[in-house]
Amino acid sequence: MGTVSNINVIKVDINELRPNSWNPNQMDHEIYEKERESLEKFGYVQPITVRQVEESAGFEIIDGFHRWKLLKELGWEDVEVNTLGKISESQAKQLTLILNHLRGEPDQIMLAKLVENIQEWMQTHCSRFWKMSWTHFQQLQT
Predict the structure, then answer these.
(1) What's the topology of domain 8-107?
(2) Beta carbons of 60 and 91 less than 8 angstroms apart
(3) Beta strand 78-83 with 48-52: parallel, antiparallel or unpaired?
(4) How far is the C-alpha of 115 from the C-alpha of 52, rounded, in Å?
(5) How many Cβ atoms are within 10 Å of 128's Cβ, its own excluded?
(6) Burial class of residue 131 (count of CB atoms within 10 Å of its CB; 0-12, 13-18, 19+)
(7) Distances (CA, A) of 111 to 30, 55, 62, 64
(8) Domain positions in the chain
(9) Could you tell me whether strands 59-63 and 48-52 are parallel, antiparallel, or unpaired per DSSP bridges?
């Protein structure tokens, strides 16, 4: 994947953020409401991770879609984000896989499509980040 070296924390208008199209992470209603309670009780303590996309204005969410959605519902206007700058889509997808594995449950079909899209990277890094083999991931595609 290569090292992401241009990480900055900046404050942006929440409407400048948009979800990516490949996020396989799903959150059931109970966990979503727990996330809401946490935001209401403790505030916004884990910034959303984003990247800049050359073809468009604003920022694409790599990690933190559910926090972004809840913050919008709660009426937040500005949020601090970790911006990784202009990283490639492949790097963004790899980070989405790694960071989402730490919380939530993946939609199996979306996960399989995402894995297929970055298959070469997955073949060499699969068991390093997850407790499953490349063969198990291939079975998700069937």
Answers:
(1) 3.90.1530
(2) no
(3) parallel
(4) 22
(5) 7
(6) exposed
(7) 22, 25, 14, 17
(8) 8-107
(9) antiparallel
> Are 97 and 106 within 8 A, CB to CB?
no
3-state secondary structure the chain: CCCCCCCEEEEEEHHHEECCCCCCEECCHHHHHHHHHHHHHHCCCCCEEEEECCCCCCEEEEECHHHHHHHHHCCCCEEEEEECCCCCHHHHHHHHHHHHHCCCEECHHHHHHHHHHCHHHHHHHHHHHCCCCHHHHHHHCC
Residues 33 and 82: their CA atoms lie apart, in Å, by 24
Is the confidence at residue 56, as pLDDT, over 80? Answer: no
| Rounded Cα distance, 71 and 65, in Å | 10
Partners of residue 11 on adjacent β-strands: 80
Strands 17-18 and 48-52: unpaired
CA 49 to chain centre: 7
Task: Return all residues near 1 (Cβ < 8 A) that are at least 6 apart.
Answer: 90, 91, 94, 95, 121, 125
List pLDDT tens digits, range 5-52. 677 899 999 999 999 888 777 788 988 898 899 899 888 898 999 999
